[in-house]
Amino acid sequence: MDTNLFDMGEIDIAWCPGCGNFAILNALKQALSELEIRPENLVVVSGIGQAAKAPHYYRCHLFNGLHGRSLPVAAAIKAANPGLTVIDESGDGCMYGEGGNHFIHAIRRNPDVTNIVHNNMVYGLTKGQASPTSLQGFKTLVQREGVFHEPFNPLAIAITLGASFVARAFAGDVDQTKDIIKQAISHKGYALVDILQPCVTYNKLNTYAWFKEKTYYLDTSHDPRDRFEALRRSWEEEKLPLGIFYLHPRPTFEEKMSVYKESSDPLYKRSPDFKKLSEWIDSKRGI
Amino acid sequence: MKDNLLMKLKEDVSIVLCGEAGQGIQTVEHILMQTLKLSGYHVFSSEEYMSRIRGGSNSTLVRVSSKRVSAPVDRIDLLIPFSPGAIRHVRKRISPETVLLGEKKIYENEYRGERAIDIPLSQIASEVGGSIYSNTVGVGLLAGLLGVDRDVLDQYLSHHFAGKDETIIQKNLEAARRGYEVSEELLKNGKVQIDLKRQDGIKNEILIDGAEALAMGAIAGGCNFLSFYPMSPSTAVAVLLTEHSKEFGTIVEQAEDEISAMNMVIGAWYAGARGLASTSGGGFALMVEGLSLAGMIESPLVVHIGQRPGPATGLPTRTEQGDLLFALCSGHGEFPRIIFAPGTIEDCFYLAQKAFNLADQYQVPVFILTDQSILESHYNLPSLDPARIPFEKHFVETKQGYKRYQLTNAGISPRGIPGFGKGLVVLDSDEHDEEGHITEDLDLRTAMVHKRLKKLDLLMKDAIVPELIGPEEYEILIIGWGSTYHIIKEALKRLGRQDTAFLHFKQVYPLHPDTVNYLQKPKRRVIIENNGTGQLGRLIRMQTGFGMDRKILKYNGLSFSVEELEAQLKSVLD
Questions:
Q1: What are the chain B neighbours of A74 within 8 Å (beta carbons)?
Q2: What value of ipTM does the predicted structure carry?
Q3: Cβ–Cβ under 8 Å, residues A166 and A140
Q4: pTM of the full structure
């Protein structure tokens, strides 16, 4: 399938020239077209931030909701209509900061949703404050003496909670990122793809060159079904591994629902059963 | 015989069961209410209890009557203490006429009156098989005194205990029979005379509380998605919808917090489901961000707030009408909404049903404001009819080039849903263009604000007219809303004034334009509310310019009682 299917034509894109978001957008569009997913069947949910604007730049059904609240929305959409492909795409502030509690519980809930997180370790849209993933010592206008909080490790948390798919990619490598996204979308269950990307305006520490230097791909010797090995790899800090860390297939949120046991009809096709309701009402007459 | 007489009652009996949490009072109430109704009596019950699992002092009021009863009274005709603290707990309500029925060891240190009948409940229970059967002995006793048919009692108990071990069923039946025999003795020796008229028609009526009617109404309105975080007093609605979720194909998810619950419900509506957010004031506070999102993206939404006294945690198990203006003004930015406030159990059903259709039709949030008082009040009513309000779906199949926020004259854009049709459904919490994409075109912003606000005119035209009870010509107008309906009605009936009418609002926002006609007539307007500031009064003045001459307010955590309101009205009106 042609990536043109997802093109919006002439549009004004609100990202800075050279932003890592462009590479992620390309990788995602390629992944979607190679998987032959049609825009009419694709729902993308996002929050607020520069990354959250991404789905405005390709053709899809879009729910661009509140900062940090995209995961509950995505889970509900998938539950109400499991036939849709649902992606949740936003930034590190949205997913790991404002939406931290939802991140934890989305992993537990395990909806079949692909969670793409643009992780540039800084807040862009609010002009350069630290993010939960900012490294210690990173100086900003707010964190003037440098960040002293321990950075949030999304992979370690996801693996610890038994997420069904956990991966990390680097926006500087569109090909591999595309492959990882493809596997994440094809995976049934909650899939986290944390994508490292530079912020060319506000993060002068974690640049393209820095990421290139500091990352490497997991090789075939890594067994993604080994939770403790995956966890160990997620804590490597000298060099950051990329690839699929952890796989833990298990029943999804929507699969466990009794509403689809007898009929696969999405909820919008259904109507209330007045006959059964009358029986419920009648049961209140006593014996 | 006459010297023996302790109690003679006709028409309307008020029984109070009082004891600690965990003593099984609710079971006694339940069986009593059911068997009385099945014997042809009108019944009403309400509860007040503490926020704890065991201990403390809780009380349940059961009214049995020859006429329909739906409001709480202070009067206690028959008091059944389950624990020594019970008498202290309801002391203010005990009158010289109150008859106390129970075990001497429980009441002897607390009660000095002469109208106590000592019933050796635990001794009878232990003869049957153990103290665990005391409550069932009590059930039999009360059932007998109030005129429940013995067959009905037996049948209902067998039904109630069905599935339990056969010995347990038999022992409960035996315990109830022994209690029933005690009542026969009391009636025979003339200590107690209760003459209630029964009506056959009542036997077939339904007996429910507000929470269950609301859950049923939600189902009737097509609700098929619920996400919630437990919070008294709203939890009962969620539990009922869960209990029936398989039957009706309802997705129920207990979310990590109310923020998530609200966003899930909005997401479900987006995908074509009909979602309910059910909570109490504190939980709704967390949902407010999501409410504003619904306002911006013009999502249909139904929010149930079971009110309880605040601020903050307040009195978790008590009642108040304190969140009306909060619901009205909640959410940053400006957007229209509808607020219902059921006054009766029937209202809980029909307004919940209507809420889902209206939310879908106008793409606005619809609130149902209840409170602990109405959610946990039970009474019998003829029936509920799901077919009275037709089920309507208001979304459309989209075509290529579909625009979710197409500017229309009426302000309503056809709502598409993803996966139904060829169009793309795009929405954004930012200001957006007709397609739904982010915009900072400020002329378009103005057009979008107009489009959203214009809907308020439609909502006003479609609003429910307030109900006028009493004479068409009146000098004094009593105004109330929501759960105080039956209490005000009964208090006014007792007062029997020809110059006074009662205007009840079950839709509190927007007010129907005709409201003004009712407000301009009287010499005096008196508002009655279960809160500290008279919130509906303020809302009425805001929307119509009419102020209130007097306010009768209650905010100690309990609902008004009929006598209390009667007395307060008297002092205000005379």
A1: 267
A2: 0.98
A3: no
A4: 0.97
